[in-house]
Design a protein that fits this description.
The complex is a heterotrimer of chains A (about 425), B (about 375) and C (about 170). By secondary structure, chain A is an all-alpha fold. Chain A contains 16 helices and 1 strand. Helix content of chain A is about 65%, strand content about 0%. Chain A starts with 17 loop residues before the first helix and ends in a 13-residue tail after the last strand. Chain C folds into 2 domains: about 1-85, NADH-ubiquinone/plastoquinone oxidoreductase chain 6, subunit NuoJ (Four Helix Bundle (Hemerythrin (Met), subunit A), Up-down Bundle); about 125-170. Chain C is globular and about 65 Å long. The termini of chain C are far apart. At the A-B interface, helix 12, helix 14, helix 15 and strand 1 of A face strand 1, helix 5, helix 6, helix 7 and strand 6 of B. Strand 1 (about 405) of chain A pairs antiparallel with strand 6 of chain B, so a sheet runs across the interface. Chain B: Belongs to the complex I 49 kDa subunit family.
Chain lengths: ~425, ~375, ~170
């Protein structure tokens, strides 16, 4: 990839931390034998991305920040006792969970129950291998990073299922199956939404998307707003977050798939829920929000700081909807996915393919993309509205205030004047 | 080719420990796949035999019992009981006592509806944000109760012949503050919930109660009014001087949970109107007629009813000229309202059953007494 | 395709895949068998990566693990409990004989073929090549496959409708 902006190659230029790691690896290559430097590269990548960025983010923003922000939304304080401003709360939670006794029912399948949280952790860690933090700061710059995301997001479904089944509890199996069916229903609109972004930028790799955003100085969100909205809803469903969290909620009644899990096993599910949400936010920041570029600001501010800011901004959207919206019923959720989101995704694909074709004929003129952005924004709003009305959504038919009567009389049917 | 994939109905227990705040109450639901086929209610987890215990105590000593039946609207409970005893003994209440009673009953209606509306939104899954906002407002009202009667929840404030204590000087500014700050809160709840697509999808058409069914099951309160029947005891059979205040009765359209929700929100607005009028026209004078400690009403029976936040709360007293009542019976609105639960839940899903239960707004203390 | 890392990866992946495939056959519990099957799929995806066919590797995981394995899991779960045991059957001996014959045929064919190896890194199949092929050379099978899948989807929904829903549809 051609250098897009003015960075030096010196190892102390922290605007691109890839320089630092490259210097380290070059030095190590002289000392160590053969291919061991690859292992070292992977290790450095893992430490840098997961341990230094994701885990603290997860703990601070995910556990602590989320509870504080939701607390403020509910006009109460969040946790503020443990440590200064309550910042040590996640550590306290982790210690509590580790020292808790993780009960396993006798009839349950121990091996599968043990493995399920491990498989659940895998996507949250694996996804960070392909997300670009900066120009040279990708651990594995594969040409199909987007599909890697989709492939890895198939794993939590299996883990959920294993968790529900191994608990040997009729109701957790029921709940787990419901969650799995919801997750796979929301995978189709997710793929279609991402496909819109792929068609527009012409590349499946994430670094390619960032390069496209930088070259045409526009973020994908302006060209494909509908895709971002569909992506947000579908990823919320994959992550089992409100308003689509029938995993946690229906568990009041049908004792969801997590009932038999306690102690750190549950802690892993909970923590990696947040980790996976952060990964999905990072992914959205890269594809839709322009990654580590910011219309030229990345020459002064380090790209990875910009990227971290965008990730957390997107994660705030998750927190916001969680604190505000009530939950949908399971069958309403599936109807929404199949009848509303999937056709919208298909329409979006149609529009974007037409535009790409027109654009190719104009030899990818830079000005045309802004026209497309404007047209797409207007079309998205119109499409959502039209499709909702076509599906029978009539908001004016729902009165939000009751009728008022003065005298205590008999029954007044609807339609007669009170 | 249909019917090949059969599902077998099985029984699940909703309760007795609810995650929502309805108390210890159990529904044995027979579920076939997703649909509820049968719902049987099992109550009695909170039975404290108040009615029997009341036969050992004097009339005044029974007032704290009534606090604890419907612990979310203790002022209204006290009021109903005192009205029954006054009817039995033929005691007149001075106008100041009546006005104070009206203010307290309406404030209690506000507090109880806050709780009902918040808990209902919590049942649909709005992760406690409406509950916290509702409780923030309820705190102001509970502070008023504490200043006046000494307790926040089980106030024990009404006495036979009036109220226990006179109003303190801090009372009026606090009530004026509530009158000022409550309408924005109701607007907030409307903006957050009544116009929220997800909330409407969750509650519209859920737990529909036809008017015939409502009248046949002798329902009352917001359940009755949600189905379009304009019946409010404050208008139909006024007590405590309600006929002098100007207020409306909100009635719903279809009788589903959404209508009951908006009826409750509107009732809060009307209560604010009543409190405003009562506070502006508060007469002076005595607040209680003197009544002997061990009251011995003449032989007879009396039934008095009030419009509590949940419906018609009735008290039936039989006296045999002793210091204690011969028979003391409470007609709890939640218990009678629950008899329609089966019709409302059968045919829906389990999630709908929870929403319907939230919209009935039960308090188990008065179901089991 | 040389290099120590590549050989190591190949042997490790081969071991995982074969052990998992063996686990599918051998495990008594049907659900364990399905989980081993998922591991086999992932192993095969790893082989695709070794051959530099990255798109196909990801597609393998998405389709096989994400959709087909879930389908098998649902199917296994919705059947009555009795047939969930991968137990003894009187077809064991004929099965073994048949697989020995098949294995013998395969081994003879593998031994007798003149395998040609190509030097250098294999040319992976990029997404754009696949896309072009699917939409120009192979467009008819592509469309027929999508029609077939739609028919299967509609048929599945038809099968699970209860009688009163069917009556509703007939009237509407």
């Amino acid at each position: 990839m051609t250098p897009l902006f003015l960075t030096s190659d010196r190892w102390y230029d922290i605007r691109d931390l890839g320089n630092l790691s490259r210097a380290l690896l070059d030095a190590a290559d002289k000392i160590l034998p053969g291919g061991v430097v690859y292992v070292l590269a992977a290790l450095i990548g893992f430490v840098a991305s997961f341990l230094l960025f994701v885990l603290p983010s997860q703990l601070i923003i995910g556990v602590y920040g989320e509870r504080r922000i939701i607390g403020r939304m509910q006009s109460r304080l969040g946790p503020n006792r443990v440590g200064p401003f309550g910042l040590l709360q996640p550590i306290a939670d982790a210690i509590k969970l580790i020292q808790k006794e993780a009960l396993t029912p006798t009839q349950a399948d121990r091996v599968v129950m043990y493995i399920a949280p491990i498989i659940f952790v895998m996507p949250a860690v694996l996804l960070w291998a392909v997300i670009p933090f900066g120009e040279n700061m990708v651990i594995a710059d594969i040409p199909v990073s987007l599909m890697y995301f989709l492939a890895v997001s198939a794993l939590p479904v299996i883990a959920t299922f294993m968790a529900g089944w191994s608990s040997n509890n009729k109701y957790s199996l029921f709940g787990a199956m419901r969650i799995v069916s919801m997750a796979i229903s929301y995978e189709s609109p997710l793929v279609l939404a991402l496909l819109g972004a792929v068609v527009m930028s012409g590349t499946i790799s994430l670094s390619g998307m960032v390069a496209w955003a930088d070259e045409y100085t526009i973020w994908m969100v302006f060209v494909q707003p509908l895709a971002l909205v569909i992506y947000f809803i579908c990823v919320s469903a994959e992550l089992n977050r409100t308003p689509v969290d029938i995993a946690e909620a229906e568990s009041e009644i049908v004792a969801g798939y997590l009932t038999e899990y306690s102690g750190m096993k549950w802690g892993l599910f909970y923590g990696m829920d947040i980790g996976y949400a952060l990964a999905a936010s990072g992914f959205a920041a890269t594809v839709f929000l322009g990654g580590w570029t910011f219309f030229g600001l990345e020459e002064w501010v380090p790209g990875w700081l910009i990227f971290i800011a965008k990730t957390h901004l997107f994660y705030f959207l998750f927190i916001w909807t969680r604190g505000t919206l009530p939950r949908l019923r399971a069958d309403q959720l599936m109807a929404f996915a199949w009848k509303f989101l999937l056709p919208l995704g298909v329409f979006n694909l149609l529009i974007v393919s037409t535009e790409r074709m027109l654009w190719a004929e104009q030899d990818y003129a830079k000005g045309l993309i802004y026209v497309f952005a404007l047209v797409n924004i207007v079309l998205s709003v119109g499409l959502v509205y039209a499709w909702a009305r076509f599906n029978g959504y009539r908001p004016e038919r729902t009165p939000t205030r009751p009728r008022l009567v003065k005298q205590a009389g008999g029954y007044i049917p609807v339609g007669e004047r009170p | 080719m249909t019917g090949i994939i059969k599902s077998e109905p099985f029984v699940i227990n909703i309760g007795p420990q609810h995650p929502s705040t309805h108390g210890v109450f159990r529904i044995k639901a027979t579920v076939d796949g997703e649909k509820v086929i049968d719902a049987e209610m099992v109550m009695g987890y909170l039975h404290r035999s108040m009615e029997k215990l009341a036969e050992e105590r004097t009339y005044t000593q029974n007032i704290p019992f009534t606090d604890r039946t419907d612990y979310l609207s203790s002022m209204s409970n006290n009021l109903g009981y005192c009205l029954a005893v006054e009817k039995l003994a033929g005691i007149e209440v001075p106008p100041r006592g009546n006005a104070i009673r009206v203010i307290m009953a309406e404030l209690q209606r506000l507090a109880s509806h806050c709780m009902a509306v918040g808990a209902f939104a919590n049942d649909t899954g709005a992760w406690q944000t409406p509950v916290m906002w509702a409780f923030r407002e309820r705190e102001k009202i509970l502070d008023i109760f504490e200043v006046t009667s000494g307790a926040r929840l089980t106030c024990n404030y009404m006495r036979i012949g009036g109220v226990a204590f006179d109003l303190r000087p801090e009372f009026e500014p606090m009530v004026r503050r509530v009158l000022r700050e409550f309408p924005p809160f109701i607007d907030e709840m409307e903006g957050l919930l009544s116009e929220n697509e997800i909330f409407i999808a969750r509650t519209k058409g859920v737990g529909v109660l036809t008017p015939e069914m409502a009248i046949n099951s002798s329902l009352s309160g917001p359940m009755l009014r949600g189905s379009g029947i304009a019946w409010d005891i404050r208008k139909a059979d006024p007590y405590c001087g309600y006929e002098q205040y100007d207020f409306d009765i909100p009635i719903g359209y279809n009788g589903d949970s959404y209508d009951r929700f908006i009826v409750r929100l509107e009732e809060m607005r009307q209560s604010l109107k009543i409190i405003q009028q009562a506070l502006d026209g508060l007469p002076g004078g005595p607040f209680r007629t003197e009544v002997p400690l061990a009251l011995r009403p003449p032989k007879g029976e009396a039934y008095a009813r009030i419009e509590s936040p949940r419906g018609e709360l009735g008290y039936y007293l039989v006296s045999d000229e002793g210091p204690s009542p011969y028979r003391f019976h409470i007609r709890p609105p939640s218990f009678i309202n629950l008899s329609a639960l089966k019709e409302m839940t059968v045919g829906g899903t389990v999630a709908d059953a929870i929403v319907v239960l939230g919209s009935i707004d039960i308090v188990v203390g008065e179901i089991d007494r | 395709m040389d290099g120590f890392g590549v050989s190591l990866a190949f042997w490790v992946l081969a071991a995982i895949t074969l052990v998992a495939a063996g686990g599918v056959m051998v495990s008594r519990n049907l659900l364990h068998a399905v989980l081993f099957l998922i591991l086999t799929f992932v192993g095969v995806a790893g082989f695709f990566v070794l051959l530099s066919a990255d798109f196909i590797a990801m597609a393998q995981v998405i389709i096989y693990v994400g959709a087909i394995a879930v389908l098998v899991l649902f199917a296994v779960l919705l059947t009555p409990r009795a047939s969930r045991d991968n137990g003894e059957t009187r077809w064991a001996l004929p099965g073994v004989l048949l697989s020995v014959c098949l294995a013998a045929i395969f081994l003879f064919v593998i031994h007798d073929t003149a395998w040609k190896t190509r030097d250098g890194v294999p040319q992976g199949l990029s997404a754009s090549d696949l896309g072009t092929a699917l939409l120009t050379t192979w467009v008819v099978p592509f469309e027929i496959a999508s029609v077939l899948l739609t028919a299967a989807l509609v048929g599945a929904i038809m099968l699970t409708r209860s009688p009163e829903e069917e009556a509703e549809d007939a009237l509407a």
